[in-house]
Amino acid sequence: MVTFVDRVTLHLRAGKGGNGCVSVKREKFKPLAGPDGGNGGHGGDVVLVADPQVTTLLSYHHSPHRSAGNGGFGMGDHRSGAAGESLELLVPVGTVVKDESGETLVDMIEPGMRFVAAPGGLGGLGNAALANPKRKAPGFALLGTPGWEGDVLLELKTVADVALVGFPSAGKSSLIAAISAARPKIAEYPFTTLHPNLGVVQAGEQRYTVADVPGLIEGASEGKGLGLEFLRHVERCTALVHVLDCATLEPGRDPLSDLEVILAELAAYPVPDGQTPLLERPQLIALNKIDVPEAKDLADLVRPDLEARGFRVFEISTVSHEGLRQLTYALGDIVAAHRAELAATPAPERIVIRPRGSEKEFSVRVEGGTYGNIYRILGDKPVKWVQQTDFQNEEAVGYLADRLQKLGVEDQLYRSGATPGATVVIGEGDGIIFDWEPSISSNAELMTAPRGTDPRLLRDSRRTTSERREKYHDMMDAKAEARAELEAERIAERYRNEEDAE
C-alpha cells in the first residue's frame, strides 16, 4: 500500500465561463425599452496552496483528476450569472510545479503561497454590455470561453534544516528516532527507509527539523538504487550529517570509504541555479554504533583522519544515546547562524512585472495545402474572440468580422498574399476555418436590419416592393410586346390572303 508520494501528475480542468444573455426589456407602456441581457459568470480557477500541515501528495495520487465549477449564464433584467466556484488544492511546502515539458512554473517554498495552476474561462458579455449609440439593441451576446485544461507535474522537495545522509543501514532512521519524536520504520535489512522522514529536534532554545533521506549507494546520482529519487530532498537543507556505520560487517567497507562514496554522489548531483552546491554546505560526521566495542575502536582510529580533513566529528550511539546531545546542539548552532544570516540579509525588493500589451497582437502564418495556401491567424485576442462568437447568429459573426478588421487582420492578410476566397484558419490545430471575403466592411453599426442578422452576410435576401414592382412591369411589357408581334403577324397574313384572292 502506497503511504508516501512525492511526485504526481495532476489533470486539471478550470471552469468554463457562462454565456451572456440576449434580452430586450418589455414593460407595460414601455415597449422595447432597450437591451437588458446580463453577463455570464467567470469560470472557477484551480489554485494550488502551500500548506505546512500537508506532508505528502498521496491524495492526488489516488484521484489526479480535479476540476473547478463553471460560471452561470447571464439572465434578463441585467442579472449576471454566478461565478464558478474555485478549487483550492493543498500541497506540501516545498512542492515544485512543472508543466508537461518539465519547465518549472513555481517553487512553493513559503507557507500560504498560492498559484493559479488553471485559470477559469471568461464570462460572455450580454447584449446590454454590447449596446452603444450606434448599435442600440444588439441581437446577440458573447459566449463564455473555456477554462484552461491540461496536466501539471507536482514534485515534492522536503523542506528541512538538516539532512541525514549515508549508506543503507547506517543508522539514520534510528538516529532521527532517538533525537526527535519521529517513528520511522527500523529493521536489520538495507533500504528499510523508502521515503524521507521528518523529525523536529529541540536543542536548548533552538528548534529545527531533520530529514532522514533513504540510503545512498555508489552510482546514486546516475539512477542506481533509490538515491536519485530522493537526493532532491537534500536540496533545501542547510546542513548535512554524514552518518557512518562503524560496525558494518560487509567486506571492503569502512567509514572512510563510505564517506568517499557519499561525497562523490553529492558532488555529482546538480542543484538548481541559485542554490549552494551540496558539498559547500556545513557538514558534520556522526560515527554511529559506538556501543559496539569494535566500532568504538574503529571510530577512535578514523577520527583523526576525518578531523584532519576539516570535519567536525561526533561519536554517537542511538542505543545508549551517547554523544547525541553534543550533536544536536552543534546542529542547532549551525541552523541558528544560518537563520541569523538570512535575517541580516536585506530582502530583495519585490518587483512587480506587468507585461505591456504586445505591439503585434497577432500573426499570420502561411501554410501550404493541397488546394492552395492556408492563412493561419495566431494570437490570444483572435482566438478568444472566436471562442466568444455564436456562429449560428449572423449579427455575432458580423461583430467578429468588425473586431478582426479593426485589429488589422484584413490588412495583414492582404500583405501576406491572401486573395478573396482564400482559406483562413484562426488558432492552432483544426481551429475555425473561414472562406475569406474582404468585401465585408466594418459598417454594421450603420446598417438597419432585424436583430440577429447582418445584411452583409445575407445571400438569399427577400426582394423589396420596388424590386417586385419593377419585375412585374418588365413582365407586362414583355407580354405587351409579344401580343403586338402576334397582332402584326395576323394583319400581315390577312393582307396576303386578300392579295391572293384578287
UniProtKB/TrEMBL annotation:
Residues 160-336 form the OBG-type G domain. Coiled coil: none annotated. It is an enzyme of class 3 (hydrolase). Residues 449-476 are annotated as: Disordered. It comes from the Bacteria. Residues 354-438 form the OCT domain. The keyword Oxidoreductase does not apply. Residues 453-476 have a biased composition (Basic and acidic residues). The keyword Metal-binding applies. Its EC number is 3.6.5.-. Gene3D superfamilies: GTP-binding protein OBG, C-terminal domain, GTP1/OBG domain, P-loop containing nucleotide triphosphate hydrolases. PANTHER family: DEVELOPMENTALLY REGULATED GTP-BINDING PROTEIN-RELATED, MITOCHONDRIAL RIBOSOME-ASSOCIATED GTPASE 2. HAMAP family: GTPase_Obg. Monomer. Belongs to the TRAFAC class OBG-HflX-like GTPase superfamily. OBG GTPase family. An essential GTPase which binds GTP, GDP and possibly (p)ppGpp with moderate affinity, with high nucleotide exchange rates and a fairly low GTP hydrolysis rate. Plays a role in control of the cell cycle, stress response, ribosome biogenesis and in those bacteria that undergo differentiation, in morphogenesis control. This is GTPase Obg. The lineage of its organism: Bacteria, Bacillati, Actinomycetota, Actinomycetes, Micrococcales.
